[in-house]
């Protein structure tokens, strides 16, 4: 069986000093919601004041799953023996005795809400700085001048690095999504440039003089001629990748609009993940049909990507001998991201 850290050459599969998406904001209510995040059971709920809370989700008394308990005000009561915990994780009540045991607190994870997402910090609490989140406004989240659609959450039986590499090499669009993404048949042939900054890496594809397909005509009804269209993949950290990009009129160079697919990737464990997708666009806010088209495309695209990387994960776990990995020039961006991830993980281990 392939190491759960493969293709990374490190001892642990993911960085922990990192913000990850735990849930859409609308998912976290006055009910107990359990999510596995980086191999840890996390319990999510809202206080009566509306604040999102994230606690370790297994009762330390006898390992009962706390999502099967109940809320008592802002406290979580275990459904097995009634141990009760405050929103800060502290044990406040053991019904069978007058005090509480030592070391009986639950872990309380730092949480912030940005872009209608609940972000959880899984590392050292003293390092949890919201400034380390991606620039969500730059990709269209939390802005009244952009439209956005939240797609259903998808659970994928594969390691998170497989989804990262799937998204960074959009040449797969020509094959995996041949019938689901209009114009996708041209993506594999578009030249690639890799653009790096301290906080991001973009695998840039700019399709030149592409004919106006029916989807583009619906998005930009005033457009008649060919367009320049970006099929970019921007790595904003292991938790978020942006694909899509700007569309320009080919004749004048005028910007017609920007259409982003935002992919939030949260490892559930070493070989499983939870996949959130939000589409954002800077045009057509008055046309809700465009949002329905994006959501409809997502219902077809996500299962295709999931099936592809789950098939690879099954190969990894089968125990068969793998061939020596080869890479094409188009893989340069993904290989650079591997090195970034390895450096991030190693820096935590050496700290």
Automatic annotation (TrEMBL):
Tell me which InterPro entries the record gives.
Cholesterol_7-desaturase, Rieske_2Fe-2S, Rieske_2Fe-2S_sf, VanA_C_cat
**GO molecular function ontology, one term from the record:** metal ion binding
- Location of the Rieske domain: 19-120
Q: Pfam families attached here? A: Rieske, VanA_C
Task: Choose any GO biological process term that the UniProt entry carries and state it.
Answer: methylation
> Which PANTHER family does this one have?
3-KETOSTEROID-9-ALPHA-MONOOXYGENASE, OXYGENASE COMPONENT, IRON-SULFUR DOMAIN CONTAINING PROTEIN
UniProt KW keywords: 2Fe-2S, Iron, Iron-sulfur, Metal-binding, Methyltransferase, Monooxygenase, Oxidoreductase, Transferase
Q: Does the keyword Iron-sulfur apply?
A: yes
| E.C. number | 1.14.13.82
**Superkingdom, taxonomy of origin:** Bacteria
Extract the SUPFAM superfamilies matched here: Bet v1-like, ISP domain
This one is known as Vanillate O-demethylase monooxygenase subunit
């Amino acid at each position: 069986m392939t190491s759960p850290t493969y293709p990374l050459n490190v001892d642990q599969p993911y960085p922990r000093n990192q913000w990850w998406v735990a849930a859409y904001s609308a998912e976290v209510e006055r009910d107990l919601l359990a999510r596995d995040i980086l191999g840890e059971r996390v319990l999510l709920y809202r206080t009566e004041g509306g604040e999102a809370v994230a606690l370790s989700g297994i009762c330390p008394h006898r390992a009962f799953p706390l999502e099967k308990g109940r809320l008592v005000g802002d406290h979580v009561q275990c459904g097995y023996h009634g141990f009760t915990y405050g929103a800060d994780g502290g044990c406040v009540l053991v019904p069978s005795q007058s005090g509480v045991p030592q070391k009986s607190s639950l872990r309380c994870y730092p949480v912030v809400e940005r872009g209608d997402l609940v972000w959880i910090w899984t590392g050292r609490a003293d390092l949890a700085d919201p400034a380390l989140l991606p620039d969500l406004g730059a990709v269209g989240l939390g802005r009244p001048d952009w439209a956005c659609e939240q797609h259903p959450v998808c659970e994928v039986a594969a390691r998170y690095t497989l989804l990262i590499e799937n998204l960074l090499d959009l040449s797969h669009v020509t094959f995996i999504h041949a019938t689901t993404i209009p114009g996708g048949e041209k993506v594999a042939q578009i030249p690639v440039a890799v653009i790096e900054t301290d906080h991001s890496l973009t695998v840039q594809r700019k399709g030149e003089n592409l004919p106006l397909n029916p989807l583009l005509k619906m998005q930009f009804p005033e457009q008649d001629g060919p367009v320049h269209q970006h099929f970019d993949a921007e790595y904003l950290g292991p938790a978020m990748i942006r694909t899509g990009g700007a569309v320009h009129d080919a004749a004048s160079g005028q910007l017609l609009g920007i259409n982003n697919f935002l992919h939030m990737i949260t490892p559930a464990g070493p070989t499983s993940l939870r996949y959130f997708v939000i589409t954002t666009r800077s045009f057509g806010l008055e046309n809700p049909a465009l949002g329905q088209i994006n959501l409809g495309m997502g219902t077809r695209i996500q299962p295709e990507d999931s099936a592809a990387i789950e098939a690879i994960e099954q190969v990894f776990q089968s125990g068969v001998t793998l061939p020596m990995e080869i890479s094409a020039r188009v893989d340069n961006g993904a290989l650079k991201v591997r090195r970034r991830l390895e450096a991030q993980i190693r820096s935590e281990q050496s700290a």
